TrEMBL record:
Compartment annotation: Cell outer membrane
Top-level taxon of the source organism: Bacteria
Name recorded for this polypeptide: TonB-dependent receptor
Entry keyword set: Cell outer membrane, Membrane, Receptor, TonB box, Transmembrane, Transmembrane beta strand, Transport
Lineage: Bacteria, Pseudomonadati, Pseudomonadota, Gammaproteobacteria, Lysobacterales
Domain TonB-dependent receptor plug: 38-150
Location of the TonB-dependent receptor-like beta-barrel domain: 344-911
Protein species of origin: Luteibacter flocculans
Amino acid sequence: MAAMSGVVHAQEAASPAQMLAPVNVTVTGSRIRGTDVETAQPVFTMDRQAIRATGLTNLGDIVARMPSAGTAEITPQDTLSSGTDAGGRYANLRQLGAVRTLVLVNGRRWTTSLGGLTDLSTIPVAIVERIEVLKDGASSIYGSDAIGGVINILTTDRFEGASADVLYGVNGHGDGTQKNGSFTWGKSTERASLILGATYEDADALRDDKRALTRSPYGPRHPDAGFGMGPYGGVVDPRPAGTPAAGSYAPGGTWDANRYVVNHPGGMVGDTADLANYHPYDVNDNADKYATTQDMTFRSGSKLRNLFGTGRYNLTDDVALRGMASYGVRDTRSQSAGYPLQSSSGRSDGLSIDPDNAYNPFPGYATSFFRRTTELPRVSWAKSKTFHADGGAEGSFQWLDHAWNWDLTYAYSETRASRVTSGNIDLVNARKALGPTTVIDGRVACADAADRAAGCVPWNILAGPGGTPDAVWNYVASTSTARQTTRTNDVVANLTGGLLDLPAGTLRVAGGVEHRREHGRYEPDAADSAGLTTQLASDPTDGGYIANEAYLEFDVPLLADLPLAREVAVNASTRYSHYSAFGGRTNTKYSLRWKPFDDLLLRATYAEGFRAPTVADLYAGSSETFESFVDPCDSAYGAAASDATVRARCTAGGVPAGYRQVDQSGAQIASATGGQNPVAFRTGANPLLKPETSITRTAGLVYSPSYIEGLDVTLDYYKVDIRDVITPILAGDILNFCYVRNDPTWCGRFTRAASGEIVQLDESLANLGSLRTEGYDLGMHYRFPETRLGEFTLLSDSTYLSDYTQVSSPGAAPRHLAGYMNGVQGLYRVRSNLSLDWSWRRFGATWTTRFFSGLKDACWSADVECNRPAESNALTGATGVSRKGGVAFHDLQLRWQAPWNGNFRVGVNNIFGRRGPLYYNVSSAGGGSPPYDPAFDVDRYYYVGYQQRF
């Protein structure tokens, strides 16, 4: 096992609790107990000392520091995500996605959401003894989800006395403050042990407007780009087509009505009913637009409270009872700018200023409008309550002159999540407030008496900031609540031991069965679900499945103590899984380990794997989503701009000549990065989905030369192929399939208006295409000979990504994306951590360098930030690539062990205040806030911590 972990500086005497632990060990990735199978698979270990050296207090952030980890589908930087998973921390191994990374706690599954995500923030760092990461497939041992790898969180199971630990940290700009406190108490006797713990964590949000890096939607290089709909009222001329001065005819023959914005000198607005107080709206002028980053959180804030307990009781010398329980509550708050309200926000019924409304500048006409409600930022509060309890028995016995171990465990996990969102608009009340008015006692009032009695107040939507009284906001504002519940009941039984003695050693076997029941439900706010508010609409979810599984594993020694064969052994395992949702599946894994001599171990694995569709994949109701994309029919930046064949297909599909895609503000897109669609698309589940399947291959070595004491080197090759990928078919892909690949089966998934604008699009899930990743892991660990200046240890862990290929559908051209920023995560060719640790008497220090290689990004335009204009962009299909350089972040921690059992630590992460490149392909939903990579440090981060043992 590649133990690239921190150095343990002090060993304590064994306590009675330590005597309760089994003599041999269970290795992550195998159910066979024994220390000699540890190194058969590539396992990375991070111990408590290495965890503390990061200065981080959230387990998700700690795992994300590993070079083999990518950016998860949802990050704290993703403030536009509207689901109940937003605010959590998730792990993503091999850039294959958090849903393909299995998370275990003490070898047992932790609770997951409807979407199959495991929130690592619900596991407090204070109880973690070490983290083991298996970096190959393990479905034959653990079942579904173990495609990218397995993260096994090992909690403290031996503790005597009490410990209190506090930490305070703050970003260099004074925000993002983190406060963390934990208390652990343990007691042991000869037969029993008990540990209780409590943790509190409070992390403040980072705001976009706090720093120049995030103050503008597209960063400091383009401070005037990306502005959205403005806060001052705008109207569309409602007079009939052909009316003089009301608009003009486009070359394609469609009528373009004039648009106007109310004058607002010095922020003051005059009479909105008088068209003389308006000026023409210029979509390319920021004077009437708005930088939404002024009101947004860059990274959400959160609070975590957790109670933890574990116990063990030896009934006899051979049988023990054990149990664990954890209850955690996470609160997350994020904020985005006020809603971009416009007539199309009213969905199929529309939303307009009534012809008889006193504030209408076109009396007698139903007038369309547009205006961002900046006075009412959208704020989301997410709460997640996670409960996990497991209990069981384990023991040992002798059979066939060999030791055998058994265990039986029942585990129950439940997560109750809710999300409260304010700042949206009640469309029913908004229609009434924009409806006909009358004058009562000299004041404008809603004309309908029943509406007035129900609280209707006329809304001068065109008045701009400060022009809407609180009474109106109270009437038209909407606050919604959505709830999600997931439950897992899991029963697992395992048996392992020696079967018979062979000339090269003992043939050992492990086997077991598992019965797991998963169920989940999602209850959207009733008004949102009915489309009565501006919140993204979604339908309820209620469903689940039952999995019954059985496995066998054999470890067979073939040769031993021979020339060039100090050890040769194979490990084979197979697991049959039957799901009530789709049927049966068998997965097998083979591993080989060969020691030609004592200093060198060679290893290889071949593993079949699968990922079952989640409850959400199978049973989730359809929901709305806003997406950023480039329409291939756009005449300036789409494929039609340079490909006559695509242009002809667009024309045949009814797209007008010279069509330009417009973003949410109504402006034409200004770069190959595209824009966000003004209307919501739909995405949904598919009950006919089948599992994803995978093949994982690894080969590597572990070299520990006897002539260099303290040196360990690991080198591993990996290759993962996934087929039948479960994915929503994104808007950009659907349009490209239709027009670029000329596949008519996709053209029915969307509808265009006569102007060419896409007004409807279906992104429902499907088993589509394939994914491949391939690369190398290199680890080096060297403990220098002890000197009079102290002990030094050098740790290095690196990953090289040689291939990352996506095929969107059968027959499609593969996209080779290694080295690209792909919108959700950076597919770095090289990620590397280098750490130097020093300890001397009671003092210690750790210096860590974290390196990210450069990435390819979309060009801003053909002649701006486009250093490879002739190169084809594998991600977008367009011509032009912007290659941006790598970045390294440096961390320093100093520590002192006080003579009264206290421990001080102080540190600075990103000590030189480095900032990474800006990537315009960073997604605004799922990845984070463009243009900054969510994997990068934002500022320096200072922290100080103290631990006291009693």
